[in-house]
Amino acid sequence: MKLGLQIVRFDWPGSPASIRPRLADVAGAAEDAGFSSLWVMDHFFQIHWVGAVDSPMLEAYTTLGFLAAVTQRIRLGVLVAGIVYRHPGILIKTATTLDVLSGGRSYFGIGAAWYEREARGLGVPFPSLPVRFQELEETLQVLHQMWSGGAPAFDGAHLHLAEPISRPAPLARPHPSILIGGGGEKKTLRLVAKYGDACNLFAGSGTGPIRHKLEVLRRHCDDLGRDYDAIERTALGQLRRGRAAVPDLIAACRSLAQAGIQHYIVSLMAPDDLSLLETIGREVVPAIADL
């Protein structure tokens, strides 16, 4: 079992001047503790179950570029990029740049997007859910084409790229891991089976629903002739501070591993508590390594 950390809050005392040094401290503590991955959300407004809508929020890829410079080993990713926020060709170029500048340490997380308020608030078109899924699949098709070195024109129902060139190529081989977020059984998990290298499910839904969704993913893989075991199975939960944080985290990892999850990503709800990350490095990472 691998452990990942997602940074979801930037409302540190002294913000915004304190954000840069504190973010570097959190990243360094996570890397030293043995976390396998470090993530940020792709949001421009804070989401309501984390904080107020106007709480500090950083743009994802700029933030990951900074994190690439202050870390050496930990893998970096967006959990997950919303399809509506950047033109797909530019998104792929941006993600490729991150992979090159991080030394091949990136994930490419992507999803259909859901936060309509921030899109409308910033003037970003927000089409219907069926259209967003169509654009998501076309983006995945373009992604595979650009990362395989091909540059023929792409003319889809929604995307039209005359010269989908991406140079330099990513350093990760054969390309950065493509993580598709969401647990929709008819569309999302089928896209994972067809185009993805990793899925991401919500740990809060419980191990029963997770087992079910992984079985659905397995059936999609069987239908498409894809090796189910080639797909990394990740889940997203929350990490809160307190005396029970460490035993609760170990117990959650054990339950998720039994359900089929290989990589548990926890949202850091109290990002100023570096001592908790150090404790996790001492007590949790070794305890879950063989799960």
Tell me the name of the CATH homologous superfamily: Luciferase-like domain
What is the strand arrangement across the widest sheet? Answer: 3-2-1-11-10-9-8-5-4
Instruction: Give, in order, the helices and strands.
Output: EHEHEEHEHHEEEHEHEHEHH
Structural class: alpha/beta
Output the radius of gyration: 18 Å
Gap from first CA to last CA: 5 Å
Q: Could you name the CATH class? A: Alpha Beta
Determine the number of helices (DSSP H or I, runs of at least 4 residues). Answer: 10
Gross geometry: globular
| SS elements, strand count | 11
Poorly predicted segments: none
Mean pLDDT, to the nearest integer, reads: 95
Tally of structural domains: 1
Let me know the largest β-sheet: 9 strands, parallel
Q: Helix proportion of residues, in percent?
A: 40-55%
What would CATH call the architecture? Answer: Alpha-Beta Barrel
CATH topology: TIM Barrel
Beta-strand content bin: 15-25%
